[in-house]
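Hello forum,

I keep getting stuck at the same step: I have a sequence, I want structure tokens, and every attempt I make locally crashes halfway through. Rather than fight my setup again tonight, could one of you with a working pipeline run this one for me? It's a single chain of 263 residues.
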Amino acid sequence: MGKSIFKDLRNNIKENKSTFVVYLILRIIVIAALVVALFRRDFETAYVCCLSLILFLAPAFVEKTFKLYLPSTLEIIVLLFIFAAEILGEIAYFYVRVPHWDTILHTVNGFLCAAVGFALVDLLNESKSIKFQLSPIFVAIVAFCFSMTIGVFWEFLEFTCDIVLKTDMQKDYIINSISSVALDPNNTNKTIRISDIESLIINGNALDVKGYIDIGLIDTMKDLIVNFVGAAVFSVIGFFYIKNRGRGKFAEKFIPRVRKADE
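Reply #2:
Ran it on my machine without issues. Output:
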């Protein structure tokens, strides 16, 4: 049974050659990384590789399970997103080595989640069995809200992992000034500002940090802001796609649709 499902998923991907080539290349790279990790007994990296291999099957699984057609552009971006987030981000340390890597991924995530949210409502709009018609602006708003909700829940997950599992998913920033009412000795809710922070001492030990460590707040707000940007961009594209039905060629590359009988 398991082999049959995997074969169906693989054939689903093969329907589009460009998608299959990308899938095959990324899969070979991840399997190679998995083998190296097992030889080194690096089980954390091996886990990330196995997770990536499973996630690579997600687009094909969604297509087969829900009888949808995913445009090749959307599938390729999803595959590359998984590779960029898990393999490059976690294993190759791009999150800390490449400036704005996390920002780029969160922007793309906002865009893709808006596309998914848009497709969910648009499929209902197009369904003949469901009497459900929404205006283009309302569909765009729903897509935007769907994307932002996913972004917020992801930040909840990052915060929970950092508190419970003691990870650092909410990456810290080094800043050189702070403003806080907590520093007001008279408790009058007056903002006290400290500028030009150049050193940090914790429990009497001076750390090699030239500033104050912001614990996750800036990272969280930055992620939500760029998610907002990505969601807003696609929502605008989706609005014009519905308003000018049949002429939104760019939007069609990102919007899943129900498979026709002959497909």
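The first strand starts at residue 68 and ends at 69. If your local run keeps crashing, start a new thread with the error log.
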